[in-house]
Amino acid sequence: MSDNGKVLGALVLGAAAGAVLGILFAPSKGSELREKISSSAGDLLDELTEKINEGKETLSELKEKVTSKAEDIKSKAEGEFENVKSKVKQTSVNTSI
Length: 97
Fold this sequence. Notes:
about 0% strand
């Protein structure tokens, strides 16, 4: 990044920080704004908590589906193994006769 870009970035960042601090520490109307910001932050936190809980629920459901599928696959594999095992046993009995 060029020096001009750095200076411009710092200027914009400083102006934004100054505006936020000015609003937050303003006497009367600022207190109303701080109340709104606090309320909005609380609402945002509630929404975020709700989304996290939804995500946890979705992951839990997905875990159950994967576990169920894994159990099905395991069961089928065990059944196929037993089939192959019995065929091998029959083949060895038939070849020894």
